[in-house]
Design goal:
- The chain is mostly beta strands.
- It contains 3 helices and 8 strands, in the order ααβββββαβββ.
- Strands 1, 2, 3, 4, 5, 6, 7 and 8 form an 8-stranded antiparallel β-sheet that branches.
- A hairpin with a 7-residue loop joins β4 and β5.
- The longest helix is centred in the C-terminal third of the chain and has 8 residues.
- It is globular.
- It binds a DNA duplex through β3, β4 and α3.
DNA sequence: CAAGAGATCATCT
DNA sequence: GATGATCTCTTGA
């Protein structure tokens, strides 16, 4: 089974569409010879300069600069002094938007390509489930930190995504987390969750 | 269970 | 000087 790397054309689309389409895709993190795999189960969309929940709503700053860059690059920052958040920049250059990867299901290290449902007991093993659930835990599991900021993830280098061929059965929409300050944007249901079980 | 507090620092005002 | 796109642990019912 082929597992095509997601290209710029995938990310260079409306952000909420990308956020939904990312569910069921696979994160590959390579460190030396080791590879770690994760099936994406939860994302959030941050859409443009008018979205008050987005860091970019305050304008262009050194930190948010990458959000204004081309699609298919990472935007990684430190939150609360101790956790990292992994975002993927979307849409065209100079339009600041990104998708926060909030959760993934770690796959076995021997994973070679392709995913079929239902997942095996091993894939659903207790303990796996919680390892990358939540933006901070996900970055901890995949060892993602600011050294990977502004990385081109359309190339198989350190961190990239592939299409698993899997389609989520059902997508749950919820308001985004921790954005009470975002005025009329705080209740937008731009958080997308699915389950593979 | 649910609720609350603490950890800890880059970033922006 | 304040704050946050979080998580974990503790407390108490």
């Amino acid at each position: 089974m082929t597992n095509k790397i997601l290209q710029t054309s995938f990310y260079n689309r409306p952000t909420r569409q990308v956020a939904q389409d990312l569910l069921g895709k696979i994160i590959i993190r390579q460190i030396g010879r080791k590879k770690y795999y994760g099936l994406i189960t939860e994302t959030e969309a941050y859409c443009g300069p008018q979205d008050q929940a987005s860091h970019a709503s305050k304008g262009r700053t050194p930190r948010t600069e990458v959000m204004f860059g081309p699609a298919g690059h990472t935007y990684i920052y430190l939150i609360y002094g101790l956790y990292h958040c992994f975002n993927i920049v979307t849409e065209k250059k100079d339009y600041p938007a990104a998708v926060l990867i909030r959760g993934a299901l770690p796959l076995p290290k021997e994973w070679l390509g392709g995913v079929t449902l239902p997942l095996s007991k091993r894939e659903m093993a207790e303990g796996q489930r919680g390892l990358a659930s939540g933006p901070g835990k996900l970055c901890r599991y995949f060892k993602i930190d600011k050294t990977l900021n502004n990385l081109d993830i359309t190339k198989p280098n350190k961190l990239w995504l592939v299409d698993s061929g899997l389609k989520p059965q059902r997508i749950i929409r919820r308001p985004r987390v921790g954005v009470d300050y975002a005025g009329k944007y705080k209740d937008k249901k731009w958080r997308f969750i699915t389950r593979f079980s």
